[in-house]
Write a structure and sequence with these properties.
Blueprint (H helix, E strand, L loop, with lengths): L6 E7 L3 E6 L6 E2 L13 E2 L9 H17 L6 E4 L11 H8 L5 E6 L7 H8 L3 E5 L5 H8 L7 H14 L3 E7 L8 H14 L3 E5 L15 H14 L3 E4 L13 H9 L4 E2 H10 L5 H8 L3 E6 L2 E6 L3 H8 L1
Parallel strand pairs: 2-5, 3-4, 5-6, 6-7, 7-8, 8-9, 9-10
Antiparallel strand pairs: 1-2, 11-13, 12-13
The structure holds iron/sulfur cluster.
Iron/sulfur cluster (SF4) binds next to loops.
Length: 324
């Protein structure tokens, strides 16, 4: 692949705003072969770092792209390493980040964290401003089932590496946990993950579901009920938990339209019934708004520990797959 074709976007990202993507790994080289991967099965599974492209060429291509994007007046909030594989397999990742610092823009890396036990990988990631670590589970058997890691990798060493990283990282640390129906969406499993995440102390812990066709067709997203339960369990241990369930943009933006505001908020986290009533009161609107959103299939009511919550319905493609 030509180096100039590995820079893409900017694409809208709920977490990162306008994100210019850097695909620093040829497709699809990864240390995992996640059952939910939207890129299909891993063709080349490896845990050894190597050089793929010349760092200077990557940096030059990014600089040219940034210039072009600025010329047409488009904003860029982050330069993001989010390749068709695992970005830390690139032994030049740290050098590439350093070369990009001259642009004085924020740099993000979305990693599966499988190599974070290595001091050189932690050093590279420390150069970024924003890092997302994958924490789908802290149970070895479930990890093997979901992430299907390269066979030399060990979960306990990876989790320990994440804790070492959080001790020294000065940027914004986030985590991403994919919830899969019948695999890692039960209360006990979520409690264990919450215990680890409480030690890791991410700025935001994101709860995700697969929103595009997964590598393994039998995989389904966790239900709205299970996602809400996970949110509540994590919310007891962590200060900031958010959904990442397939709706980009407009989160928390007050549009002046109470329906839109409700959908924006509930795509990020569930709302307690009292909070919904308060929002409606401020907007001088009645409960009929909620009934219509439920009837149109945009909102749903879920119960947790005797309390009623309202959350956004999951994106439709996954629901259709779940019905099969
Ligand atoms: S870590 Fe990411 S790229 Fe690798 S298999 Fe999992 S989802 Fe796909």
């Amino acid at each position: 692949m030509a180096v100039n074709s590995i820079i893409y976007g900017p694409v809208p990202s709920r977490r990162l705003g306008h994100s210019l993507g850097i695909n620093n790994i040829p497709p699809k080289i990864c240390s995992y072969s996640c059952v939910y991967c939207q890129l299909g099965i891993t063709l080349n599974i490896q845990a050894e770092r190597q050089a793929f492209y010349e760092p200077e060429e990557i940096a030059q291509s990014v600089k040219e792209k940034v210039k072009q994007v600025r010329e047409i007046g488009e904003p860029i909030d982050y330069l993001t390493f989010v390749p068709d594989g695992e970005p830390t397999l690139d032994v030049n990742l740290g050098k590439e980040i350093e070369l990009l610092k001259s642009l004085d823009m924020k740099i993000a890396v979305i990693t599966n964290a499988s190599l974070i036990w290595r001091a050189d990988v932690r050093r590279d990631l420390q150069k970024a401003d924003w890092v997302s670590l994958k924490v789908d589970t802290v149970s070895k058997q479930i990890w093997r089932r979901i992430n299907q890691p390269q066979k030399s990798l060990q979960l306990e060493v990876i989790l320990d590496g994440m804790l070492k990283f959080t001790d020294s990282f000065k940027g914004e640390l986030t985590t991403e946990s994919m919830l899969l129906q019948g695999i890692n969406d039960n209360g006990g499993e979520i409690e264990r993950a919450a215990g680890f995440l409480a030690q890791l102390k991410p700025n935001i812990a994101y709860l995700a579901i697969p929103t595009r066709p997964p590598a393994k067709r039998t995989i389904s997203a966790a239900s709205e009920q299970a996602i809400n339960t996970a949110y509540q369990i994590l919310g007891k241990r962590l200060s900031n938990v958010e959904y990442l369930i397939g709706y980009e943009g407009n989160a928390f933006a007050s549009s002046g339209n109470v329906e839109q505001d409700l959908l924006s908020i509930t795509s990020v986290h569930p709302m307690r019934e009292e909070a919904v009533r308060e929002l409606l009161r401020k907007a001088d609107a009645g409960w009929a708004v909620i009934e219509k959103l439920i009837e149109d299939g945009n909102l749903m009511q879920v119960e947790y520990q005797g309390k009623r919550f309202y959350m956004r319905r999951l994106p439709r493609p996954i629901r259709y797959r779940m019905l099969k």
